Amino acid sequence: MSNTPMAANPLTRAVLEIDEYASGLGWDQPARLFALVDTARLRTQEPALAAQLGLADESETTGLTPIEQDEIPTDKALDEFLGTIAWPDAVVGCALTVERLMLPPSAEAQVPQNLSDARLAKWVAEHPERQEVRMTVAVLRDGTRESAVRLREKDTPTEVLTGPELVPGLAQALTATFED
After folding, report:
1. Ramachandran angles phi, psi of 44, nearest 5°
2. CB 154 within 8 A of CB 163
3. What is the pLDDT of residues 66-118, one digit of tens each?
């Protein structure tokens, strides 16, 4: 049984379920990509897969089921990789979980100008106020989005922030995977 709290909508529940799954794997993990499929449709069209995923006996008629995809290649930038994805019609949305270092807004004024990406990453990694975060971002074909952000130093389910605009750039990149 999942420890994911009940959320008002299926997309939020899916994001929290993925966050819980990623949390169970621990930190320092690679990015993970998930297809989101309509649970009721999955039960009807793929009963064997639904049974394998433990969904056959659930009474809930609405919801999204995350299905983890193959490993994301580490030799390609994430935005480049996302640009190569095309989803079949059965996929109603997608989600990505990724770990990053971030700084509080108060540190923005301290960022040195004209640094290469590599030097900026090194500067952030050495900054005393840096925070390790795991971000889970999900989007639906219609543009609906949801995110969950978990700080490593506050690694408990009750400390997960959720909201549709927490990671807008990543949400936009995921939305683009549904464009023709």
Report:
1. -75, -45
2. no
3. 999 988 888 888 888 998 998 999 999 999 999 998 887 788 778 888 888 78
